[in-house]
Design brief:
disordered C terminus; 5 helices; alpha/beta; 155 residues; Rossmann fold
Length: 155
């Protein structure tokens, strides 16, 4: 997929097997056409904020959901989450942490930084595939997203 096009899902995952399983699960639900995958936190931030290799990307096309691993090279997932949720233009993007960490400090910190959901990756292949399938279905088909072209007012 051309990264300059609008995407529904930004997958931030450094493990090639987990990324492939996630993409396969989304293909099964016909959701993979609008997915873009990056392998580290620095690329994720560049993509989200339209800088570096992604400076030509149209920034008004924000992902409908970010699936974010925590243990990433260059910049870890919690730092990516903090950057997304502390920026007025991106804080409404749902961020789902999808990680192998079941540690309470990681879970608490993720929610404190504004994570919308925290999912521990199942170890079993079939369970992992089904979990990704359900995540994609919920966040893209059931969850309502604000219109990207309008402004959001509070109060």
């Amino acid at each position: 997929m051309d990264y300059s096009q609008a995407v529904d899902i930004l997958l931030v995952e450094d493990n090639p097997q987990d990324a492939e399983l996630t993409i396969r699960a989304f293909r099964k639900r016909n959701l993979a056409n609008s997915l873009y995958h990056v392998e580290d936190g620095a690329k994720a931030l560049d993509y989200i904020f339209c800088r570096g290799d992604y400076s030509e990307r149209i920034c008004k096309h924000k992902p409908k959901v970010i699936l974010l691993d925590l243990k990433l090279p260059k910049i870890d997932g919690l730092e990516v989450l903090q950057a997304v949720k502390s920026n007025e233009d991106t804080r409404i993007i749902p961020v789902v942490i999808v990680t192998s960490s079941n540690e309470d400090p990681d879970i608490e910190r993720a929610y404190a930084l504004g994570a919308n959901s925290y999912v521990v990756k199942p170890v079993n292949f079939d369970d992992f595939f089904e979990a990704m399938n359900r995540i994609g279905y919920y966040w893209l088909m059931l969850n309502r997203h604000p219109e990207t072209s309008g402004t959001v007012s509070v109060g």
